[in-house]
Design goal:
This protein has two domains: 196 residues, CheC-like (Chemotaxis protein chec, 3-Layer(aba) Sandwich); 63 residues, Surface presentation of antigens (SPOA), CATH 2.30.330.10. 34% of the residues lie in helices and 25% in strands. It contains ten helices and ten strands. The protein is elongated.
Length: 333
């Protein structure tokens, strides 16, 4: 810890005060020996360490990137989602902080117990709804009179977004998010006791010209089984699997096999002036820079790849691959 360096004038003043009795040396020692007291609010008990909160922040930063991609594709407009804050507070305090009428998606995360709440600000939710219905993405807050069609569209939109939540948690635990309830009034929602500690992840969301918040509320009971994994030691010790998934390998192979390539057999090249080119006539012979004894070169997407020789298969012209192309390797043959 850095120590404060006193100037000579300050030292003289301090000695003068001690000698005159203005300051008591024993009293100063007593104050230094007294234990420092830190205020602790039992109503807002901190049940997650800073390390665990940072891990949750990393998980939801990944979730925000996945959501940005998902909503950009679904809404076909500019979407930007990023983590604004990660806090732990009583459930009652969170409920009081959100609007009285808002979009509430309650979903389970089997095999973890309890439920998670995803709350979308009405401005953001209606901008999404307007885009899905073909509008420009303007927002009109009328949560209290949602029609059945609007409710169905909006719940389906967020239900499909939960697939990204499953992927974001994949490095910690395999979960299966499932939308269970869709509400608009937080007063009718009682997930946990009012004093239960919850993690609230606030996502700053911009859709076109509309912006607002999407909040993810995670009760402590949900995270309790995976708390030991929310540490730097777990992240550092966990090594990624080095074995390739056979299904992924097969899918990649199948996709690559269907790719089209531009393949050309190069007979040879010739240099000539523009005047010679313009004076070419029928039955003129162009002398190539390659001997008939030398193998030809096959180019794949303009890159030389193989040495080949011409031939014929069932009355069709063909080439036979001799060996892989090496720079200058065919000139000696």
């Amino acid at each position: 810890m850095a120590e404060e360096v006193l100037s000579q004038n300050e030292i003289d003043s301090l000695l003068s005060a001690l000698s005159s009795g203005e300051m008591d040396a024993e009293e100063l020692k007593k104050e230094e020996q007294e234990k420092k007291v830190r205020v602790y609010d039992f109503k807002r008990a901190l049940r997650f360490s800073k390390d665990q909160v940072r891990s949750l922040s990393r998980i939801h930063e990944n979730f925000s990137r996945l959501l940005t991609t998902y909503f950009s594709a679904q809404l076909r407009t500019y979407v930007d989602i990023e983590v604004a804050s990660v806090d732990q507070l009583p459930y009652e305090e969170f409920i009081r902080s959100i609007p009285t009428m808002t979009i509430l998606n309650i979903f389970s995360v089997s095999p973890l117990e309890g439920r998670i709440l995803l709350e979308a600000n009405p401005n953001v939710a209606y901008a999404m709804l307007d885009r899905v219905l073909g509008g420009r993405g303007s927002s009109v807050n009328k949560v209290d009179n949602l029609t059945e069609i609007e409710t169905t569209i909006m719940s389906h939109l967020f239900e499909r977004a939960l697939e990204n939540y499953q992927e974001a948690w994949g490095s910690i635990v395999d979960i299966e998010p499932m939308l269970e309830e869709f509400e608009v009034n937080p007063q009718f929602l009682q997930m946990v006791s009012p004093n239960e500690t919850v993690i609230v992840v606030s996502l700053n969301t911009t859709i076109g010209e509309t912006s607002g918040m999407i909040n993810v509320c995670i009760p402590h009971v949900v995270l309790e089984p995976v708390i030991p994994k929310l540490s730097v030691h777990y992240w550092m010790q966990k090594e990624p699997s080095k074995e390739r998934n056979p299904l992924e390998y097969e899918a990649i192979t199948r996709t690559i096999q269907g790719a089209e390539l531009d393949v050309r057999a190069l007979l040879g090249e010739a240099d000539m002036s523009i005047e010679q080119f313009l004076n070419l006539d029928a039955e003129d012979v162009i002398r190539l820079n390659q001997s008939i004894e030398q193998p030809m070169i096959m180019k794949v997407d303009e890159e030389p790849k193989f040495y080949i020789q011409p031939g014929q298969v069932k009355s069709k012209m063909a080439v036979q691959i001799l060996e892989e192309y090496t720079e200058g390797g065919g000139e000696d043959e």
